[in-house]
User: Fold this.
Amino acid sequence: MTLIVHKYGGTSMGSTERIRNVAKRVGKWVRAGYHMVVVPSAMSGETNRLLGLAKELAPQHHNDAYARELDALAATGEQASSALLAIALQAEGIPSVSYAGWQVPIRTDMAYTKARIESIDDARVRADLQAGRVVIVTGFQGVDPQGNITTLGRGGSDTSAVAVAAALKAQECLIYTDVDGVYTTDPRVVPEARRLKTVSFEEMLEMASMGSKVLQIRSVEFAGKYRVPLRVLSSFTPWDIDITQEAQSGTLITFEEDEHMEQAVVSGIAFNRDEAKISVLGVPDRPGIAYQILGAVADANIDVDVIIQNLSKDGITDFSFTVNRGDYARVIDLLKNSVIPKLGASDVVGDPKICKVSIVGIGMRSHVGIAAKMFKVLSEEGINIQMISTSEIKTSVVIDEKYMELAVRALHKAFELEQAGA
Ligand code: ASP
Ligand code: MG
Assistant:
């Protein structure tokens, strides 16, 4: 029998009414003959509520002991929604059982609040499936080697679902969410944005890392590694729509390039506002500079994105990079206090109001001049490019935040993304 994994986001699980709807939808798939594993998020707002309570009690002093309790706390959100879904299914006459991450178990490393899944024991789940039960597995959590509850980072239920689908070799993992698929760009910025029927896994990876909030990036990495067919679709369609129609809706993330029907050169425009630029000025240009600057930043567990080292003049250069805006103040402090003095650089300056805009498409591999066209469009709009970075299938520019929407609209139009199959 074919196994399918469904994942439902917090909005889809947001009330008993909605949970009942999820149960009815899952019931439809069960009656169509599928084995089903369902991975729910916590009811919408619940994770924030729980974490808020912790913060009320301890606004400061956030150490490992605190992180351990945060995970124990936050994991309850998914435990509650999972049990409620099992109850709703049973009420529909469908045998069902829910398991918390540690009960499966889903084994992770020990990095509280951002743990990584290491392995999943599928025996228990398989036995239930064989016995004809729908198995609900809590999203967002696992258990570390010492038996502590861990969570996978915000949005982590996507990753749980994909990991469970990989472990059980499910035919497909369907991510039901409050948007009906992956769009050429955010429709709130460009109303003409179009839903993609398919997107390649590599493009999705770039879009997810570039600020498209549809899927947690780790879930896309996981899907790529284990080749899990993944579909993003709406949970707001009526639960009783035709199952064949439902199974083909949304956006399929594919691995076969020839399955990638819409052969556009550029498939989407991604953007990220939450960025900040930092420049270390007057750095002596000698081996080990990048390591001394970025090593210190990495040791503080801060992600660095675009990096630029300028040409040196008289043995002195400037070194710039971007980080998450939330890390900006910390990085400036760190550089001022410990790195600059050691390095003999002259100063650190920064700009927390920048953003990154990227064009993404596997067609860029086989077409030249795409980046040049992007730069032309931006120059025609009078937008100054501060930094550029490229990969085989994307070109990103760092620009002033105030031009973000203008840039995205202009690029969407220039690359004719509003037209199907463009
Ligand atoms: N409930 C968790 C969060 O809000 C995990 C998830 O929804 O994916 O981040
Ligand atoms: Mg989510």
